């Protein structure tokens, strides 16, 4: 029982490192945006950068398709997690740095580092999950819960940090420091201006926290590979090294074609556990593509504009609660698995 609990904990911690940097970046934007020249355009830029980073998982997928067995997934995971630790660490030091581009200040270091952490997070989608198939099926749901927590935990830390906290103060309180240079009309100023309260800790400290979470992910991955208790939880007692895609090819379930090769293949497709027509399969994938596009690109890119009229607090809470929804859904599915 203790072994099983240990493996569950490690699987959850491993899953938490999958999207922690990008999810953590979204909830930190209310503090980052006022200090970078891109301003509220930054969320749109980030959405484009994240999509460009999908070239990395595309490369991994093509390697599995055309050169099966040549790509060692364990080595790839070590590389991307280590690379993610370095990129997160550099974010803490260089996120506010700017570079002159055609006479205009641009956050080139920030954009470049966001691209790097996007490569790490996007590639985790096609490497972490195949690695988890080496363990028993019950640990896969724990991994998904951990993956959902990769958005929830940074959001909770951001709430403790005080992201987006603002108060309105009288302008005279600000002008009072320059009273000797004010005329009589300016001394009588009586209108409210927004004043952003300092956060409980800095953006730099927040990025150090994300770096620490990536380190925890690396440690969990090491233990999943080499801890004797975890080794006993593998169905075939494999050592965790090598390409899981090539190993799965030897299984009987993978020897069966996904699509029927008989005459009925023109009408029906084996999809999951039931029989679906080609139109139903197409419908499922269209809905999946639409939901994914909204979740990962469409809504985050316009969220700053839709929430800005209601203030930074509204934007902060909308981004936070969006990250809360994922682990709740995974937690429910652990007890309600009927499809």
UniProtKB/TrEMBL annotation:
Subcellular location: Cell membrane
Bilayer-spanning residue ranges: 39-63, 75-96, 108-131, 143-163, 205-224, 268-294, 314-336
Chain residue ranges for the region called Disordered: 235-265
Assigned keywords, A-Z: Cell membrane, Membrane, Transmembrane, Transmembrane helix, Transport
Coiled coil: none
UniProt cross-references to InterPro entries, sorted A to Z: Riboflavin_transptr (IPR009357)
Keyword hit for Cell membrane: yes
Topology versus the membrane: Multi-pass membrane protein
Reaction catalysed by this enzyme: riboflavin(in) = riboflavin(out)
Predominant location category: membrane
PANTHER family xref list: RIBOFLAVIN TRANSPORTER, SOLUTE CARRIER FAMILY 52
Protein name stated in the entry: Riboflavin transporter
Species: Cirrhinus molitorella (mud carp)
């Amino acid at each position: 029982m203790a072994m099983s609990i240990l493996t569950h904990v490690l699987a959850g911690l491993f899953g938490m490192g999958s999207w922690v940097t990008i999810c953590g970046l979204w909830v930190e934007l209310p503090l980052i945006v006022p200090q970078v020249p891109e301003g509220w355009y930054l969320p749109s830029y980030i959405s484009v950068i994240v999509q460009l980073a999908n070239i990395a998982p595309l490369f991994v997928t093509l390697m599995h398709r055309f050169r099966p067995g040549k790509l060692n997934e364990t080595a790839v995971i070590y590389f991307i997690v280590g690379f993610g630790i370095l990129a997160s660490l550099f974010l803490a030091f260089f996120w506010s740095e700017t570079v002159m581009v055609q006479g205009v200040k641009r956050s080139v270091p920030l954009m470049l580092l966001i691209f790097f952490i996007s490569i790490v997070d996007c590639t985790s989608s096609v490497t972490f999950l195949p690695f988890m198939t080496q363990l028993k099926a019950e640990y896969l749901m724990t991994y998904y819960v951990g993956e959902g927590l990769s958005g929830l935990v940074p959001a909770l830390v951001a709430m403790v940090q005080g992201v987006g906290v603002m108060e309105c103060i009288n302008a005279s309180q600000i002008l009072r420091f320059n009273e000797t240079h004010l005329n009589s009309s300016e001394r009588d100023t009586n209108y409210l201006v927004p004043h952003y309260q300092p956060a409980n800790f800095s953006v730099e400290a927040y990025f150090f926290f994300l770096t620490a979470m990536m380190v925890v992910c690396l440690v969990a991955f090491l233990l999943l590979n080499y801890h004797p208790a975890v080794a006993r939880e593998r169905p075939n007692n494999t050592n965790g090294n090598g390409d899981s895609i090539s190993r799965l090819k030897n299984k009987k379930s993978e020897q069966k074609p996904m699509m029927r090769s008989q005459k009925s293949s023109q009408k029906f497709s084996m999809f999951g556990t039931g029989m679906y027509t080609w139109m139903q399969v197409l419908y499922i994938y269209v809905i999946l593509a639409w939901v994914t596009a909204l979740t990962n690109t469409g809504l985050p890119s316009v969220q700053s504009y839709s929430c800005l009229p209601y203030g930074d607090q509204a934007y902060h809470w909308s981004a936070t609660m969006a990250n809360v929804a994922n682990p709740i859904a995974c937690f429910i599915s652990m007890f309600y698995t009927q499809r």
